[in-house]
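tool=predict chain=A
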Amino acid sequence: MGWTYSPMPVPELARLCRDIGLVAMEGIDPKFYPEIQELGLEISLVGSHGFAKGPCNPAHHDHVVEKLREGIDLAAQIGCRRVITFTGMREPGMDNASGARHCVEAWKRVMGQAEKKNVLLCLEHLNSRDNSHPMKGHPGYFGDDVDFCAELIRQVGSPNMKLLFDIYHVQIMNGDVIRRLRQYKDIIGHIHTAGVPGRGELDDRQEINYPAVMRAILDIGYTGYVAQEFLPTWPDRALALRHAAKVCDV
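tool=predict ok
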C-alpha cells in the first residue's frame, strides 16, 4: 500500500516489494502504474472517489458515479480487476435506512459497466472508533459496521459488488475476525492488514494473530490479494515490510 510508506519514493518502494517477493501494489498515483508494471508487479486495486464524499449522501452521487466510472475504465485498461468504493461520511440526521438506500442507488448506476468490463467494486468498511490520527480511524463514517456493509452489498445484487475486508478495521469495530471471514467468504473481494491497536506492524505489540487469520483466508478458498496497509514505526521501514510478508506467508 503506497500511501502508508510515504515519503519513500514510489519507485523505490516498488523495487523493495519486488525484492521481498510481493506481487502487487496499490494506493499510489496512477502515473506510476507503467513503471510498476515494468518491474513485473501488478496493480491490485484502483482508487475512485475517496471515503469522505460517498454515496450515502445523494448530493455526492454524480461525483461518486463519475469517479467510479473512471476507475472502472482505468482498471480494465491496465488489467486490474478491483476498484475501491466507500459509503462516505454520515450526514446530520441521516438514518441507516435512507443512507443505505442512497448507497445502493448510486452503486447500481455503475454495476452494468463493472460487469461488462469484468471489474469488481470493493466496498471498504472503516472503523469510526479511533480518533487519534486521520488515517487510523474515521469518526462519522457511515459504513463502520462490517455486517451492515455486507447487507448493502447483498442489496446491490451483483456478483461484481464485493466487500473489502480490512482486518484492522473489522477487529476494532466488530472483532471475531476468523468467523466473519468464513461468514462473508462469498462476497470478499479484497483484504487489507494492519496491527491493532495503532495500525502499526504485524508484530508482538498488537493483538491479532495474523498467521491464524492467514490460514483462515486460505481455508475459505480466497485467491485474491492481501495488501499490507500498516503505518511503519520501526526504524528500519524496509525490514518492517519484510517482516509483515514473512508473518503472512503461511
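The radius of gyration is 17 Å. The domain at 2-247 is CATH 3.20.20.150 (TIM Barrel).
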